[in-house]
Amino acid sequence: MSGDSDCTRTSPSAGSPSDTEFAPARPKYVCSLSPDLVTKAREELQEKPEWRLRDVQALRDMVCKDYPSLGTCLDDAFLLRFLRARKFDYDRALQLLVNYHSCRRSWPEVFSNLRPSAIKPVLESGFVTVLPHRDPEGRHVVCIRPDRWSPSQYPITENIRAIYLTLEKLIQSEETQVNGIVILADYKGVSLSKASHFGPFVAKKVIGILQDGFPIRIKAVNIINEPRIFKGIFAIIKPFLKEKIANRFFLHGCDLNSLHQNIPPMILPEEYGGTAGKLDISAWNELLLASEEDFLHDFSQLVLPCESSPQEMLVSGDAEEKQCDDSLRGMKAQLYYCY
């Protein structure tokens, strides 16, 4: 993800040789996709290998022209994530890139000091992990277990930080960029007190990031062991979901056979009726924590400058809070009813 954020120095079409004399060379992109994934990317994402670098350069030129102060990485591999996430639609990929940075600037509680070691307690709790095996479609399964979180120990934003860093690590893989991911959320033991922390303001922020502010393809969200209280949680979430994403939510209750129709037992841990052994969070934690230096380097370049124009920003936090006031007032009553 590393790269030079100064468009006037990194764009090949800008400046004279003296302008770029001291600019670091941009890493040369080397495709790591298998022949099957190259074919899949062509069919599903409109990615043509023979035009790939031309498309990346087109997006780079658009960033330099329209958002010269965005402060983004301009490496081929980094920009390619956004093109794949938006099926090589230049305009939509550019908007996703702008949103990516806007989300980071507008929620400092989540994005300040964001590195694996800073969320070590969340990782050790097992709140979020990635199963060791991909599903038959080549997708990683991100497992989220809210019952592992104790609100008295740290705020809900720490959980969001852990999920975000997990996604950042996963999206480094070109295979994941093409195949997407699957989410498995186990709501066993989620109480009213925990649910009340996930209000409309937080819900809108999180969903805004996942839908419009991060270059990842979420192919399915499987919910299991959801209590009655989840009806209230989902009622908060659903208004912010696009129809396509809402249709990818699957509520299985306690029916593991239903879950196995979406995620095969061979890749699931014993806790979910699978045959892949006990759920082990240590391997993923070690992998993420070992990436500390990468995150420190990468994220140091992904900060919007204070003078960013309003056109570059999403709805401000104050506006979002105002929009959510009515929902927030009715949230607790709705949750109590469902509980």
TrEMBL record:
Domain CRAL-TRIO: 115-280
Alphabetized SUPFAM superfamilies for the sequence: CRAL/TRIO domain, CRAL/TRIO N-terminal domain
Superkingdom as given in the UniProt entry: Eukaryota
InterPro entries for this protein: CRAL-TRIO_dom, CRAL-TRIO_dom_sf, CRAL/TRIO_N_dom, CRAL/TRIO_N_dom_sf
GO cellular component: membrane
Ranges of compositional bias, category Polar residues: 8-19
SMART domains in the record: CRAL_TRIO_N, SEC14
One GO MF term: phosphatidylinositol bisphosphate binding
Name listed for the protein in its UniProt record: TTPAL protein
Ranges where the record places region Disordered: 1-24
A Pfam cross-reference name: CRAL_TRIO_N
Gene transcribed to yield this protein: Ttpal
Cross-referenced Gene3D superfamilies: Alpha-tocopherol transfer (1.20.5.1200), CRAL-TRIO lipid binding domain (3.40.525.10), N-terminal domain of phosphatidylinositol transfer protein sec14p (1.10.8.20)
PROSITE patterns (UniProt xref): CRAL_TRIO
PANTHER family: ALPHA-TOCOPHEROL TRANSFER PROTEIN-LIKE, ALPHA-TOCOPHEROL TRANSFER PROTEIN-RELATED
